[in-house]
Amino acid sequence: MRFELAENERKVLREIQRQNNKRDYVKATVLLMLDLGETPPKIAGFLGIDDGTVYRHLENFQKGGLDKFLGSNYLGYWGKLSSFQIVELRKQLKEQLYESCHQICDWVEKRFLVKYTAEGMCDLLHRIGFVYKKTKQIPMKVDALAQAEFIGQFEQLQAEKEADEVHYFIDAVHPTLNSVRELRVD
Predict the structure, then answer these.
(1) What 3-state class would DSSP assign to 175?
(2) Residue 57's closest CA among 34, 76, 38?
(3) Which residues make Cβ contacts (< 8 Å) with residue 47, sequence separation at least 6?
(4) Residue 119 domain-assigned (yes or no)
(5) 175 belongs to a structural domain
(6) Is the same domain home to 58 and 84?
(7) Which residue among 88, 101, 139, 158 has the highest number of C-beta atoms inside a 10 angstrom radius?
(8) What's the whole-model pTM score?
(9) Residue 74 has pLDDT above 80, yes or no
């Protein structure tokens, strides 16, 4: 089989080989090696592809020329939601805090009737620019007037107490907090 490229096609293919795109590199190298007179089985062995792929690249080049051969018709998977639904989801996520992907999955299912797994939702959220940050507890907004009233009552209570009287403060903590012992086997 005799295959020959035009000089300008060789230049374009050599330039493509210098770029960092493996798929295009293989396609360009197949044509350049055929141009040098190599056989499809040898090319397949050098590039780690099967013979059928070499023949398919050659056929695609012969059918459509260099422009169609190098063009990419691949349209990536955009997920289950339309772009309008993603815009609405982004708006919802900015307005309301969710603690887990499961909660977001529930909202999406109720709103759009589209079911996601937690892992799938996590991937979608990363793709649209959201990241997971563990929620932190922050103190509630205090009522300054009620706080001042409590301080006044406490100071009055302290002033009126007897010498041997003691005031205790308790914190509503679960009684088993930090009380579990580790069992070590040495």
Answers:
(1) coil
(2) 34
(3) 26, 29, 30
(4) yes
(5) no
(6) no
(7) 101
(8) 0.42
(9) no
